[in-house]
Amino acid sequence: MPARGAFVVLEGLDRCGKTTQLSLLRSSLSSSSPPTPVKALNFPDRTTPIGTMINSYLKTAADMSDNAIHLLFSSNRWEAAPALLETLREGTTVVCDRYAFSGVAFTAAKNNGTCGYDWCKGPDVGLPRPDLVLFLTVSESVQEKRGDYGGERYETRELQRSVRGVFDRLRADDEGERPWKVVDADRSVEEVARDIEEAVREVEERVRGENPPIAKL
Ligand code: FDM
After folding, report:
1. 128 lines ligand 1 (CB under 6 A)
2. Whole-model pTM?
3. Residue 149: its pLDDT value, please?
4. Over 84-96, what HEC string results?
5. How far is CA 115 from the centre of its chain?
6. Which residues belong to any copy of the Thymidylate kinase-like domain (predicted)?
7. N or C: which end of the chain has fewer CB within 10 A?
8. Mean pLDDT to the nearest integer, 159-182
C-alpha cells in the first residue's frame, strides 16, 4: 500500500489569485522529478446536478433560501467525498480551490448572519479534513485594482468585507487543530507561488513520511 496523498485547500476572497495559483501549483507538482501525482478539484463543482442548481443560484437565475443553498453547497462536497478519499488513499495529492471554509464564510456573512456561524458549520462535519489550508489574503485596494467584480451574486464589496471577517474567525478557531498558512497575495504571482509550493512540499513530505489517517472536519 502506498502512503496516502496530501489534501491541500486554497481559500481566500475574490481576486486573491487562488485559481491562477492552483493551476501553477498543479503544474509544478506534476512536473517535478519524480513527479508528484496530483489531482485538482474545485468547489462548487458546477458539473453535477447539484452543481447546476448552485450555478443557477449564483448567476441569479434561481432564488433559494439561505439555508437551502447552504445545504446544497455542502451536499456538493459530500457527493465528491468518496472519490476524494479514494484518490488520497491511492497516493495522489489533492489540491482544491475552495472547500467547507468558503461554505461557512459566505453563508454566515450574508444577510447580517441570519444563518448562524455554528449552524453553518454543521452540514460539513465529518467531511475529510485538509492537511493544509492555504489562506490567500488580499487587501481591499489590491482586490479593487485587479478589476471589477463580475456579475455573480456574492461579488459585492459589502459582502466581501463580511466574508473576510468570518474567514478570520474560522482561522482562529482552527488554530488548535492544524494552523492555516496565511499567504500574502498582494505580492507578485511568482512570489506567492514560491511560498505556496514550499508549504505544499513540506506537508506532502510529512504526510508521505508519517502516512497519518485522514482526519475529519
Ligand atoms: N461559495 C463557495 C459559497 O457560498 N459556499 C461554498 O460552499 C463554496 C464552495 O460561491 F462567491 C461561493 C464563493 C463564491 C461562489 O465560487 C463561487 P467560485 O470559486 O467563484 O466559483
Report:
1. no
2. 0.96
3. 74
4. HHHHHHCCCEEEE
5. 20
6. 10-196
7. N
8. 90
The CA–CA distances, whole Å, from 136 to 9, 16, 21, 86 equal 11, 6, 10, 27
ipTM summary value: 0.98
Q: How far is CA 101 from the centre of its chain?
A: 7
Question: Which three cell numbers mark 140?
Answer: 481591499
Q: 21-60: per-residue pLDDT in tens?
A: 999 999 999 999 999 999 999 999 999 999 999 999 999 9
Nearest CA owner, ligand 1 atom 21: 44
Q: Hey, whose CA ends up nearest to atom 5 of ligand 1?
A: 103
Pocket-testing residue among 20, 127, 154, ligand 1, by greatest number of atoms within 8 A of Cβ: 154
Distance, CA of 196 to CA of 192 (rounded, Å): 6
Torsion angle of the four alpha carbons 19, 22, 27, 32, in this order, in degrees rounded to the nearest 10: 160
Residues 150-162 have a mean pLDDT of: 89
Q: Is the CB of 70 under 6 A from ligand 1?
A: no
